[in-house]
Write a structure and sequence with these properties.
Elements (H helix, E strand, L loop, with lengths): L5 E6 L5 H10 L1 H5 L3 E4 L10 H11 L2 E6 L1 H5 L1 H16 L4 E6 L29 H24 L15 H11 L10 H20 L6 H18 L3 E4 L11 E4 L5 E7 L6 H10 L6 E5 L3 E6 L2 E2 L4 E2 L3 H12 L4 H34 L1 H17 L6 H21 L5 H4 L1 H13 L6 H6 L2 H12 L4 H19 L1 H7 L6 H19 L9 E4 L6 H9 L2 H10 L1 E5 L2 H19 L8 E3 L2 H4 L10 H12 L2 E6 L20 H12 L13 H12 L5 E8 L9 H10 L2 E6 L12 H4 L8 E8 L7 E6 L6 H11 L8 E2 L21 E2 L26 E2 L6 H4 E2 L2 H23 L8 H4 L11 H9 L10 E7 L2 E6 L11 H4 L11 E5 L9 E4 L2 E2 L10 E5 L1 E2 L8 E2 L3 H11 L5 H11 L3 H6 L1 H6 L3 E2 L5 H19 L10 E4 L13 E2 L6 E4 L2 E4 L4 H4 L1 E2 L2 E2 ...
Parallel strand pairs: 1-2, 1-3, 3-4, 7-8, 12-13, 12-15, 13-14, 15-16, 17-19, 24-28
Antiparallel strand pairs: 5-6, 6-7, 8-9, 9-10, 9-11, 16-18, 17-18, 19-20, 21-32, 22-29, 23-25, 24-25, 26-27, 26-29, 30-31, 33-36, 34-35, 35-36, 37-38, 39-40
């Protein structure tokens, strides 16, 4: 270690002095060892010139700590003096700057926003449940930097030595050297600064265009508005122009954050105005001054915390404009800062608090007779009212939700009598009273939460508007569920609807009612139901639209909604009742809301629903002649993990209706997507209208529009409705990986979303489907702005869809000739094996095909290391077989399997089929022969335990590759299954290949050359004799089945084939055209053979000549932890000691799914550890430590050769070579 202590300089705001002292205390052991010396401004001696002392130490320190908080960012001295000087020294390599994030703030936009920050993951110190742990993590990070500095002092110049040291191109040298001196501490300008600089340039350009044409406020302010709006977007704020606030105040702009909290105001004045006088007028009018920017194109003034900052910004100077914007967007009001910290901490603390409450409930359930009686009564109510299978744990969670959040409903909504007024809250409160009757002290327990409640309540105080307060609480509630009930959020898809969407949907329903039926929302008798109301946004919006003289009748008789989750039910009740109070001036409970599961009500059971009043409400709703169904139902195919024991509910009646309509009339082989909850709601809504005319308006997953499994659903929607409108808001990240769910999806989720308005009007004879799709790359804000601008469906430019006979709505791009080519396979052809049809009647190229196996427990039955896999499988087999034994010994225990088995991620991972095997008494047996080599992802081989019990589905692979020996002779063509969310791909393999070869959302269908009996005997060729006869008739008797196999593989790589039939390949397995001449056929075959050879034998390919650059400052290592590409994608960073490059463009042109072959290798060959089961995956091979590095070079070579061959194919064979005289299957040669 170094002999001279390294000086550390603390740059901090005095508001954070307590935290600075705590950090200094944690560093004391390093001081005692003479490793460091710390300095901060309180060390300045009396009589010394403080500015000179600060400068002296700022220039002598080797490590400079930025103690970051909103106060630090707001400090003029910290920002303009200390930060700027520190960054200069960092740039020069004279010091290392380390941001330490103390409190929540948007520090990423600061000049050091891209630096590696401490603690881990830049999680603010104040958000750690254990603050000592946070500072310990900071100290560890500082020690690493001390070691780096020390090693650089000791490192002597080294000679270039030996074989491994190779010279690299200048670009690579520069990239390496730019990061070698200070690893892990980036010092490039932030993306924010770059974007802001460009925005300021555009601002001046806009002003220039106005010169000599306009010099008044309305003309000039648009330039600054554009600049400010762009800066706000960078920090995830939104600038809303001219929004009227309470008291009639209307700033030129109001800035809001994701919580809908106001973060600032902007007021523009003309360039000739006296800005100080204009500001004085605004202050006299009680203008808000928390973070308010006044400007007149010449100068700007900023108020923060009601105080004017002591300097003006000259808007003619770019640096002043930049400083102004940064000061504005980095400011956080103290109440808001406390709120953000509180919400973050609340989310972190909720699991711990919930567990403590659950423990108390468990204890009282054993000892408190009064509570036992109350709990049992309440449980029986829940089972008869909500869900017959509801568990005790779920009911306990309801009590915990009520306990933790009841105070917020009283205080934020100002409804002190809430628990007595609300029929459900009152019932739960009785149970809580019983819980606290013996020893549990409610007030004492919740006292520890006071600071969270106070912070949230303080932030809410500044929100005057009820709708803003509603949105605020919705957001707090979503954060609550993220911390408290991830499972419930998973099952119910808890995401709330942006107001712009609610407005658009309600306005569109009004438009449709008037246009189609000559009525309106306000008309008595037009009864409306929101089946999954959440927090009541749709009903509140509808109340807004009803004239006051009609409101009382509608409120009492025509509006209905259901909610099955406790907290949103509370919020919805309060929101709806308050909106009615605001409109009519008197309080009246909303009896149209039911605490009930809509789909459970559809089951027709006449059961008491919770309490008598709730039961009466439900009956009234059931009797209603519903004309409009509107809302945002949950969408979720199923639980993320069977170990969560968190399945979607079964609804026998609704499920049966889906099965006998949507599923029955679907031609798809895989119909699992029809189990999505939103599909059930469409079926339910169609049925709920009965035989009446009406409207269904829902925002849902948009998968039904174009995915294969929904053909039957599309058929029935056309049958059930006369006019269907669909606005496709896109946002499917799997289909378009270039977008982000967080920024592009209106709900911040991964699946696509759309608004559907389905109209049933018996008088309309023509059935029509209208479609509109927003641009793929629009961000959430742009989509919401579009809906706000259009207002309702009447202003949308619609495309009228023309569905075909297969009930495909999106027919654009479908090539009709595709269906005339030879199909690779069909469901009918696979019936040959069962003897249902004769082989002579099969007119496909392949007799059979299969999906790749699906394990549902990859971590347990796959591994790079054979021995590690064996150990895992032994543990898994032992646990599973033990559960089978226990199941058979259960005797008269009638517990269902879901509630019977153990759920321990570190011992077993359950799935649907594994539970069925357990019930059948099927044991799993370990057998060495079941350890097979497999292709898990492109160019990524792993060992697989191939077992019918522990693999969820093996499909036909026991007949394709039944033994290791068959891998030596059999080959199959793996390709994208129809209905995939990934681009079409094809890859040959001779190993068991995973169903998700190119990732989730894409199945892999495998067409083998041979099939076998399960013991490996009885080898049979899988290409039909019919296909051989067709090819021989066209090209000559010398054609073999291997020629056909290679021809198919080649043509599936053809760029024009893929481009021309891109839409067909989404909906059907490939159909293969025949080229016109034998010579062209042979060219295709030859290229296909070469492609197949290099893809099968990639491990023996020669290595592409990449230049190796080694870091002489660290020991050389072959070990890979996590490789990555450089920013410009010219270099592979293998590890700290080695980089490879420059990479040729071809290695990114060869793509399989959404990634290039090289990117698949980089993605898969990394050390990882599963957070749930603790299983570690390590691709490094003890028997061949060079394997991964060599593989990178080989895959680059394979990519280059593939692209060259595909280009050669495109030159030798064009689309005209098969389209002009295509062979129709129906006209094929009869032999």
């Amino acid at each position: 270690m170094t002999t001279q202590p390294i000086e550390i300089f603390y740059s901090y705001a005095h508001e954070d002095e307590d935290l600075q002292k705590q950090l200094d205390e944690h560093l004391s052991s390093l001081k005692q060892q003479k490793l460091i010396s710390g300095w901060y401004d309180r060390d300045i001696s009396a009589g010394a010139l403080w500015s000179e002392e600060i400068q002296r130490h700022l220039h002598s320190a080797r490590i400079i700590l930025f103690l970051v908080s909103s106060s630090f960012l707001a400090s003029k001295y910290c920002y303009e003096v200390e930060v700027q000087e520190a960054l200069k020294r960092h740039e020069a390599g004279e010091a290392v700057v380390i941001p330490v994030i103390l409190r929540s703030c948007y520090w990423q936009v600061a000049p050091f926003g891209q630096f590696q920050a401490l603690p881990k993951n830049a999680k603010p110190v104040t958000l750690w449940s254990n603050r000592d742990a946070a500072f310990t993590d900071v100290v560890k990070g500082i020690v690493k930097v001390i070691n780096e500095i020390d090693s650089q002092k000791k490192t002597l110049p080294t000679q270039q030595n030996g074989k491994r040291k190779r010279r690299m191109g200048e670009v690579l040298e520069e990239e390496y050297e730019s990061t070698a001196a200070m690893p892990e501490i980036p010092h490039t300008p932030t993306a924010f600064n770059n974007t802001l600089k460009k925005a300021i340039e555009r601002y001046y350009k806009e002003l220039k265009e106005y010169e000599g044409k306009a010099d008044y406020e309305l003309a000039l302010r648009s330039a600054f508005q554009n600049l400010l709006a762009e800066a706000c977007r960078l920090v995830k704020w939104t600038l809303i122009p001219e929004q009227t606030l309470e008291g009639g105040i209307r700033p030129d702009g109001v800035v809001r954050d994701a919580f809908e909290l106001r973060r600032g105001y902007w007021e523009a004045k003309g360039p000739k105005s006296d800005l100080d006088k204009e500001i004085a007028k605004k202050i006299a009018d009680n203008y808000p001054l928390m973070n308010t920017l006044f400007e007149n194109t010449r100068v700007a003034v900023l108020y923060q915390s009601k105080k004017r900052l002591p300097y003006e910004y000259d808007l003619t100077k770019p640096n002043d404009v930049s400083d102004l914007i940064k000061q504005f967007v980095t400011y956080t009001e103290p109440d808001i800062a406390n709120f953000e910290t509180a919400v973050g901490e609340f989310k972190q603390r909720i699991p711990e608090l919930a567990k403590a409450l659950l423990d108390s409930i468990e204890k009282e359930q054993k000892q408190n007779k009064k509570f036992i009686t109350a709990f049992d009564t309440f449980t029986e109510l829940c089972r008869t009212s909500l869900d017959p299978k509801i568990s005790d744990n779920t009911i306990k969670e309801m009590l915990v939700q009520h306990l933790l959040t009841e105070r917020l409903f009283r205080t934020i909504f100002g409804n002190a009598d809430f628990v007595n007024r609300n029929v459900i809250a009152a019932e739960i409160e009785r149970v809580i009273q019983a819980l606290t009757s013996r020893s549990f002290d409610r007030q004492e327990f919740l006292k520890s939460l006071d600071r969270f409640y106070v912070a949230i309540e303080s932030a809410a105080k500044g929100i005057e508007s009820w709708s803003e307060r509603q949105h605020f609480l919705n957001t707090v509630y979503e954060r609550f569920f993220q911390g408290f009930s991830v499972k419930q959020a998973d099952t119910l898809g808890i995401v709330y609807t942006p107001q712009e969407i609610v407005d658009f949907m309600c306005a569109s329903v009004e438009e449709v009612l008037q246009r189609e039926f000559g009525t309106s929302i306000a008309e008595p008798g037009v009864q409306i139901l929101d089946p999954a109301t959440g927090t009541g946004s749709f009903i509140v919006n509808l109340l807004h639209r009803i004239p006051r003289h009609q409101l009382k009748h509608k409120y009492r008789h025509d509006l209905f909604c259901n909610e099955v989750t406790l907290l949103p039910y509370y919020i919805a009740s309060l929101n709806i009742e308050h909106e009615y109070f605001e409109r009519v001036g008197e309080y009246e409970p909303f009896e149209g809301i039911c605490f009930a599961d809509t789909l459970e009500l559809a089951e027709g059971q006449q059961l008491p629903l919770f309490v008598e009043e709730n039961t009466e409400r439900v009956q009234r709703e059931k009797d209603a002649q519903i004309m409009v169904v509107i809302g945002n139902p949950p969408y979720n195919v199923g639980q993320k993990s069977e170990n969560d024991n968190n399945k979607n509910r079964k609804y026998p009646l609704t499920d049966a209706r889906v099965s006998e309509t949507y599923a029955k009339d679907s031609k798809a082989s895989n119909k699992i997507a029809l189990s999505d909850v939103y599909v059930k709601f469409f079926r339910w809504a169609s049925d709920r209208l009965g035989n009446r005319d009406g409207v269904v308006c829902m925002i849902t997953n948009n998968s039904f529009i174009d995915q294969v499994a929904f053909d039957g659903m599309r058929m029935h929607l056309q049958k059930d409705f006369t006019t269907i409108y669909h606005i496709d808001l896109h946002g499917n990240v799997r289909k378009n990986p270039k977008i982000s769910g967080t920024t592009h999806n209106v709900f911040g989720i991964q699946v696509g979303v759309g608004v559907t308005i389905a109209v049933r009007n018996a008088k309309q004879l023509k059935k029509v489907i209208y479609y509109n799709r927003v641009p793929d790359f629009w961000r959430k804000a742009e989509k919401l702005a579009f809906l706000k601008e259009k207002g309702n469906i009447s202003a949308i430019e619609w495309l009228e869809l023309q569905p075909n006979e297969r009930h495909i709505w999106m027919t654009e791009g479908l090539r009709p000739e595709f269906s005339t080519y030879f199909p690779m396979g069909s469901k009918e052809a696979r019936l040959v094996k069962s003897g249902t049809i004769a082989e002579s009647n099969v007119k496909t190229i392949f007799k059979t095909y299969s999906l790749g196996p699906r394990t549902n427990r990859d971590d347990w039955v796959r591994d790079f290391n054979r021995e590690a896999l064996t150990r895992k499988v032994f543990r898994l087999v032992d646990t599973y077989n033990g559960e089978v034994d226990r199941w058979h010994r259960r005797g008269s225990n009638n517990t269902g399997v879901d509630d019977f088995v153990i759920y321990d991620d570190k011992r077993i991972k359950w799935s649907r089929d594994l539970k069925l095997d357990l019930q059948r008494g099927s044991y799993s047996q370990y057998n060495e022969e079941k350890i097979r080599r497999s292709l898990y992802r492109p160019f990524c081989k792993q060992y697989l335990f191939f077992d019918r019990v522990l693999n969820e589905e093996v499909y036909q692979f026991p007949q394709i590759l039944p033994t290791s020996t068959t891998e030596q002779e059999n080959i199959f063509i793996g390709l994208t299954d129809l209905g995939s969310e990934k681009p079409f791909m094809v890859m040959a393999s001779n190993l068991i290949t995973d169903v998700h070869l190119v990732g989730a959302g894409c199945g892999t269908q495998c067409f083998p050359f041979y099939t076998y009996s399960e013991d490996g005997s009885n080898r049979r060729e899988n290409i039909t004799n019919w296909a051989l006869n067709q090819f021989q008739a066209r090209y000559g008797n010398q054609v073999t089945k291997w020629d056909i196999f290679h021809y198919v593989y080649s043509l599936l790589h053809h760029s024009q084939y893929r481009e021309r039939y891109v839409e067909n390949l989404k909906r059907d397995l490939p159909h293969i055209p025949l080229v016109h001449t034998p010579e062209t056929f042979q060219s295709v075959v030859n290229i296909g053979k070469q492609l197949m050879d290099i893809h099968l034998n990639y491990e023996t390919a020669k290595e592409y000549r990449l230049t190796w650059l080694e870091n002489e400052n660290v020991p050389f290592s072959w070990r890979v932890e996590k490789m990555r590409l450089s920013t410009d994608k010219r270099v592979v960073v293998v590890n700290e000691s080695l980089r490879l490059g420059p990479l040729p463009q071809e290695c990114f042109d060869y793509r399989l799914g959404n990634r290039s072959a090289l990117e698949w290798v980089i993605d898969q060959y990394q050390v990882s550890k599963d957070s749930r089961n603790g299983i570690e995956s390590d691709p490094n091979r003890l028997d061949n430590e060079e394997y991964i590095v060599r593989l990178v070079c080989k895959v680059v070579q394979v990519s280059v050769e593939t692209v060259q061959l595909v280009n050669e194919l495109a030159q030798k064979v064009t689309v005209e070579d098969w389209t002009e005289e295509s062979v129709n299957v129906s006209e094929a040669t009869e032999v």
